[in-house]
Amino acid sequence: MEIFWFLIIAVVLAMFFVLDGYDFGAGIIHLFYAKSEKDKEVVAKSAGLFWDSNEVWLVAAGGMLFMAFPTFYASVFSGFYLPLILVLWLIIFRAIGLEFRSQFNYQMWKDIWDKSFGVSSLLLALFFGIALGNIVRGVNLGVVEQGVSTHEAHFFFLPLWNSSFSPLTENPGVIDWFTLIIGFISVVTLTIHGANWIIIKTNASINSKLKNVIFKLNVTLLVLTIVSLVCWQIVNPKALSNFTEKPYLLIFPMLYLTGLIGLFFIKKFKKDNYGFICSTLLIIGGISSSLASLFPVLLPSINDVNESLSIYNTAASEYGLSVAIGWGIIGIILIFVYMIVQKRLMGGKIDHMDYGH
Amino acid sequence: MEDMLFYDRLQFAFTITFHYIFPQLTMGLSLIIVFYKGLYLRKKLEKYNDAAKFFMKIFAVNFTMGVITGIPMEFQFGTNWAKFSELTGGIIGQTLAMEGMFSFFLESSFLALFIFGEKLMGQKLHFLTGFLVFLGSWASGYFILATNAWMQHPVGYEILDNGKFVLENFSALFTNPWLLPAFLHNQMASVVTSSFVVASIGAFYILRNKNIEHGKLFLKTGVIFGLVSSLLVAFPTGDWNAKNVAKYQPASFAAMEGIFETEEAGAEIVLVGQPNMVEKKLDNKLAVPNILSFLTYQDWDKQIVGMDHFEAEELPDNIPALYYSYHIMVGLGTIFIGLMSLSAFFLWRKKIYTIKPLLWAIMFLVPFPYIANITGWYVAELGRQPFLVYGLLRTADGVSPTVSSGNTLFTLLGFVALYMLLGLLFLILVGKTIHQGPKHQTH
Q1: Count of alpha carbons within 13 Å of A265, Cβ hemisphere only?
Q2: How many Cα atoms within 13 Å fall on the side-chain side of residue B164?
Q3: Residues A272, A224: contact at Cβ < 8 Å?
Q4: How confident is the model at residue B28 (pLDDT cuts 50, 70, 90)?
């Protein structure tokens, strides 16, 4: 039962990063590559039409986590208090940037909200990567000081950083050199993903240039991936033991690798959506590999006093989980129906779509 | 620790108050939009379609605001109320997760289609998408009320040795006697807000002598919906809720009604007065004898227990705030019924469009249903104090154990600043939409 809900939530989270990921990426492209007003408008629109239905996946993942693994939800949300609230503020800035930019035809107004959209997209992509880095690195559960827990075993609190920026200390911060590397991977991945989305969804003049950008970013990504694997070994020598013990889990890193290799052929793709499929594989592969490397742990403990949070010691009652499967399945079927309807009616390029048209 | 609790509560109160400005309009307005779209399908008059699309623009702005101020609400359960989340997540997580699955997806998917898809889908499908948006927004209200109902009157649970609440009976969450009255009351109140918004925009157009045809339509719709909903808010739904409070939370009932001493034979209803917490009495009291006993139990002489009957730690911790919230809500509700009855009378006599003072009154009363809705929620939330889960889990025991008060104060200040900006932008946008009027087509 715990495994079932773990899988469902993992899928919902992956959906969130795939879907909202492209509009984060669009924001980053918007910040660095969209120069003409026409491109800026159409790139913003390629995110603006979809961000709110995409962010519902985040709300859904949060709700399910709350229901299925309440102890984990409580521990992680309070432990990462500051970064989470910053993420909330960034989400708000991004949304108002998107919603307000075209409300007044006044250049300075548009510039302000464009920057608000672009910069918060960039920072959010960075923060989501850092978050993933924190999860795989682990935290000081129970806030152990000199071998004694100062709080209940499943609670912790992380400062944004500590002065050494090192993941190897007793009390690492949210931002250290390891989580930053994962953050950069996230930024690069989502930028590629966003660029692919813009190529599919718009006729922006930068589209042909974006393929070059994707290629270059992909080289960067390859380097970062290798660096992160080495660092991961340093931070947690047992990081890859799950894969050696259960070789079938290697399917997840294979997904990532397929996406990564595929994107080197971006300029040769005949269809626009091949690139998007590759970057989707990158995201799904990246998230699923990280989760698979930990499984069944959800949040490793970096001290010897308290045990890691796993799907077993943080789950809700058996009855609650099983009754939720009933409505969960109905809900998921409905969601896919909505998605198909929406896709059929709003497929294609969006350049000329507008209120009432 | 004291500080911590205070900042946590203040942050939640501030963010939820600001958040609830938006859903209360979207829930009621979606009903009115569906009504206009339905009228258009039957009568084929362009003005009805204009009205539906015009209010959909206002709806869309509110919806966006609702989403971006709503995500922090869900997060805060974990960030600021971690202990509460840990102990009760197995139960209220059910209804909150269902809200995400059954209403947010529905609402957000079909809102985009309603706004962008009229030409693509044809009128009947367009009506259907509007209806689904309405359904999604009301379902959202239902699941939130189901969550709140459990906190007000917990059912279907079992408490383990480690203090965790576990779900024992799923269907009990939805047959909770607290749920239906609270849901209907809340939905009717949101229709009141929306009716006032619609009527007030209508009054504004008539007074400005602009978009007269639409203005008259909006005014008429607003007054009719407003009269019906403001009556339904009071009776039967409000009455039904008050009886639930009297039955399940007698301490809160005494506090909100301002009854300091138990009245053995027939309790009076307080109209005006200020709670004096030192002398435990009401200053400047104006009351009508025996009415409260009659309203609550249909018996003029029935005893109603006062606050003297309870230990201090069972009573809400801010009695004056609870008392004022309740009296402001009831007072405003009464004014709404009066104004809407008067307007409906003149609407029936076909004179309303020329009575300027009445139009001015309708236009300027628009903030008050918002105040009534929000004070209504204050009654529910302050009345439940000092508990998070009534009678079982104290508010002080629900906060995050590792988050310090300095961090919470920092984020509270951030929210205040950010929400001021949001509020300003919101007003600019809605003002712009109203200024452009229902005839305006975006290129």
Answers
A1: 12
A2: 19
A3: no
A4: very high
Q: Which residue of A has its CA nearest to B118?
A: A356
Residues of B in contact with A52 (CB under 8 A): 63-64, 67, 108, 111-112
* Strand-strand pairing, A144-145 and B269-276: unpaired
Cβ contact (<8 Å) for A339 and B64? no
Distance separating alpha carbons of residues B93 and B287, to the nearest angstrom: 43
In this complex, the residue of B80, B115, B418 whose CB is nearest that of residue A355 is B115
* Mean pLDDT within B45-50: 91
Output the DSSP codes for B132-166: HHHHHHHHHHHHHHHHHHHHHS--SEEE-TTS-EE
pLDDT digits (tens, 9 = 90+) for A325-335: 999 999 989 98
- Give strand pairing partners of B269: B288
Q: What's the complex ipTM?
A: 0.91
Identify whether the C-beta of residue A94 lies closer than 8 Å to the C-beta of residue A27: yes
Integer Cα distance of A225 and A231 in angstroms: 10
Amino acid at A15: M
DSSP B233-276: IIIIIIHHHHHHHHHH-HHHHHHHHT--S-BSS-PPEEEEEEEE
Q: Do A73 and B89 touch (CB under 8 A)?
A: yes
Task: Please provide the size of chain B in residues.
Answer: 443
Query: Which residues contact residue B196 at a Cβ distance below 8 angstroms, ignoring those fewer than 6 apart?
Result: B222, B226, B336, B362, B365, B366, B368, B369
CB–CB contact B113 A341 (8 Å): yes
Mean confidence (pLDDT) of chain B? 92
Q: pLDDT at position A354, please?
A: 52
Name the strand (E) or helix (H) holding B288. Answer: strand B281-288
d(CA B40, CA B29): 16
Nearest-angstrom CA–CA distance, B164 and B156: 13
> Where do we find the tokens 């990921």?
A21
Closest CA to B93 of A53, A164, A324, A114: A324
Q: Name the DSSP class of B282.
A: E
Contact yes or no for A55 and B67 at CB 8 A: yes
How far apart are alpha carbons A192 and B390 in whole angstroms? 50
Q: Which residues contact B379 (CB under 8 A, 6 or more apart)?
A: B256, B322, B325, B326, B329
Q: What pLDDT was estimated at residue B264?
A: 80
The type of residue at B27 is: M
User: What is d(CA A342, CA B387) in angstroms, rounded to the nearest whole number?
Assistant: 43
Q: Are A291 and A321 in contact (CB under 8 A)?
A: no
* CB environment B413-443: b (16+ within 10 A), e (fewer): eebeebbeebeebbeebbeebbeebbeeeee
Rounded to whole angstroms, how far apart are CA atoms A320 and B93? 10
Tokens of B253: 């009932």
pLDDT, one tens digit per residue, over B265-286 is 888 888 888 998 888 888 888 8
- Whether the per-residue pLDDT at A240 is higher than 90: the answer is no
Closest CA to A139 of A128, A153, A127, A129: A153
A174: buried, middle or exposed (CB in 10 Å: 19+, 13-18, 0-12)? buried
Whether the Cβ atoms of residue B15 and residue B72 lie closer than 8 Å to each other? yes
Backbone angles phi, psi at B284, to 5 degrees: 50, 45
Single pTM value for the model? 0.93
Give the up-direction half-sphere exposure of residue A12: CA atoms within 13 A in the CB hemisphere.
Answer: 26
- With tokens 């259907």, the residue in question is B128
Residues above pLDDT 90, as percent of chain B: 73
List of chain B residues whose C-beta atoms are within 8 Å of the C-beta of residue A88: 71-72, 75
